[in-house]
Design brief:
binds zinc ion
Length: 152
């Protein structure tokens, strides 16, 4: 049984390409939009609006407004981790998937190739093609497991 790869069109492979997409849509390349995109390209993980606001010293309402526009035109995607605030990543980063700890709330990006065996098993057992790009694979991380074992 072969499992199809996650579709991962590179919405914009670089900051310049992303700015080009804005212009092509007739949208202004404002300082805030440029800074949000630059911060997301520089980030190692999806950021929430508060983190973005702190990184680019813009006001939160403006960050939300611009994120919503960038999401609408397909440059940015929203990643939901549990009950917390949504986080934002470049749409091109959708090729990365995420694991998240329900105990300490930490999360990390994972190369989708590392989840292929899991995906194949889920496909075989349940008939689902799983993806962990917009909702992470949730469990308990190694550090929390070690702490639980230490406590007893
Ligand atoms: Zn943990």
């Amino acid at each position: 049984l072969s499992v199809a790869h996650i579709p991962s069109p590179l919405a914009a492979p670089s900051l310049q390409a992303a700015l080009g997409t804005l212009r092509a849509r007739g949208l202004r390349v404002s300082t805030t939009r440029r800074l949000i995109l630059a911060a997301l390209y520089a980030a190692e993980r999806p950021l929430n609006a508060d983190e973005l606001t702190a990184r680019i010293s813009a006001d939160l309402a403006s960050v939300y407004r611009n994120l919503s526009l960038l999401e609408e035109i397909g440059l940015v995607c929203r990643v939901q981790f549990g009950q917390g605030a949504g986080r934002y990543a470049l749409a091109s980063a959708a090729e990365r998937e995420f694991v998240s700890c329900e105990s300490c709330g930490t999360f990390e990006a994972v190369d989708p190739a590392r989840l292929e065996a899991v995906r194949a098993l889920i496909a075989r057992e349940l008939g689902y093609r799983a993806r962990f790009s917009t909702h992470p694979l949730v469990g308990v991380c190694g550090a929390c497991l070690a702490r639980e074992e230490a406590v007893g």
